[in-house]
Amino acid sequence: MSNEFYAANRDAIINKIVADKEAEMAAEAAKRQAAAQAMANRRNAMNSTGPRTPEGKATSSQNRLAHGLCSSTLLIRGESQAEFDSLLAEIRDAYRPATPEEQMLTDQLAEAQWRLNRARRVEAKTLNLLAEDTFNYLNEENDGNEPVTSDPDQLIAVSFASIPNDAIYRNMQRYVTAIERSHQRCLKNLHHAQEKRRTLPPPPVQPEPEAFKVATANSSLSEVGFEPQYVPAAPLSTPAYNDRC
Question: Are 68 and 118 in contact (CB under 8 A)?
């Protein structure tokens, strides 16, 4: 750098150095403040007894339902019980479970399908928001000098290159993949249970006792479920009776 250039731009160079240093110090101060706040939050959490009122407990129970992708509660706020019941009826009608095991696996498949449908909706909305943010960012950067593409695929591709969006994409892909695997596992288990039932041999038929066969052959049943009207008479003289059976 020549002396003439430095002399002509001395103030600008000094201002830039000072601004860079101030930005660095502000970033360090923000990190220290965030660490101190996190430590204070942990100390407060150790002393907390949690919500005590019924209203507070009901609200606290929904804390893990922020996105609904890992919650143990199936339905989240805004979802319809009637719609889930309709999906459950459709899946039961399609697979027609015939045993308690198949019934349980069919219900699990319906729950996995419900969560997968939700994950797909959330994924689509997330991509749409990222594409919209990318479009607005490009418009601000160009200052209206040239038109910005409105192609959603290209906007999403551009947003992939943004480092802040990387964590969003990775988390979304991880959630969707986990739910897809759960759905496929439920479907596989149900198919296996139904195939096992179809291939099992029928239970063996128990042979009828000989005494029952003889009694049935010697008597006429007028109606199923009723005792026969004819009852063989007892022998008149027991010692002279010869059993010819």
Answer: yes
| Measured distance CA(129)–CA(150) in Å, rounded | 13
- Where residue 238 falls among pLDDT bands split at 50, 70, 90? very low
Q: Which residue, among 78, 76, 74, 77, has the nearest Cα to 110 in the 3D structure? A: 74
Return mean pLDDT, the chain. Answer: 75
In angstroms, the Cα distances linking 154 to 65, 120, 147, 149, 231 are 32, 20, 14, 8, 93
**DSSP string spanning 169-225?**
HHHHHHHHHHHHHHHHHHHHHHHHHHHHHHHSPPPPPPPPPHHHHHHHHTS--SSTT
Alpha-carbon distances of 10 from 22, 65, 72, 85, rounded to whole Å? 18, 56, 63, 74
Write the burial class of residue 76 (CB in 10 Å: 0-12 exposed, 13-18 middle, 19+ buried).
middle
